[in-house]
Write a structure and sequence with these properties.
- The protein is built from six helices and two strands.
- With 168 residues, the chain is mainly α.
- It folds into two domains: 49 residues, no CATH class; 119 residues, no CATH class.
- The protein has a two-stranded antiparallel sheet.
- The chain is flat, with a radius of gyration of 18 Å.
- Bound molecules: zinc ion.
- The site of zinc ion has 8 residues, from loops.
Amino acid sequence: MTRIKDVKITCHICGTEYEGSVLMSSNSMTGAPDIKPLACPKCGAPAKQVHPETHSAATTDILTALLKDKNKAVAILCEYSRNDTDVDEWVKMMKERNLNEWEKSNEDFLKDAETNKMESYAGEFKGQAEKIERLKELSESGNLASKIDEIASEAKKCLEEEKSKYQV
Ligand SMILES: [Zn+2]
């Protein structure tokens, strides 16, 4: 199914308010409609729609990226932050994330997927279980917090660059 949502955006660079449509999902049979990524009509900065106060589950994206590719984690953290306050908020949420609870709920999802013979989902949850295990190891050795601080300071640099690029 193709779903399009109308959204209101306040530009994080210049404060301009604007409206636009975003593609939530598309039908692979009919192809994706031509919806361009939203950007501010005044300064051209790309719209940022994932915020710490509304998308707490997105810590998963950043933490799992951190395991594989630091630069990717920085890019995601920068994309999900409008300013340094957002970065600090993500840092807090990532450090406070309860890895045991995450592991437990992932195990439940995996069991469900196996019971219902949904193999591709089961594969995904198995992959996720390995990542959670590695995050737990990092956390126990005390290295997770310093890695999070490291990507946070780079994401702040990324935000500064973005600001100087678009500010009018
Ligand atoms: Zn703007």
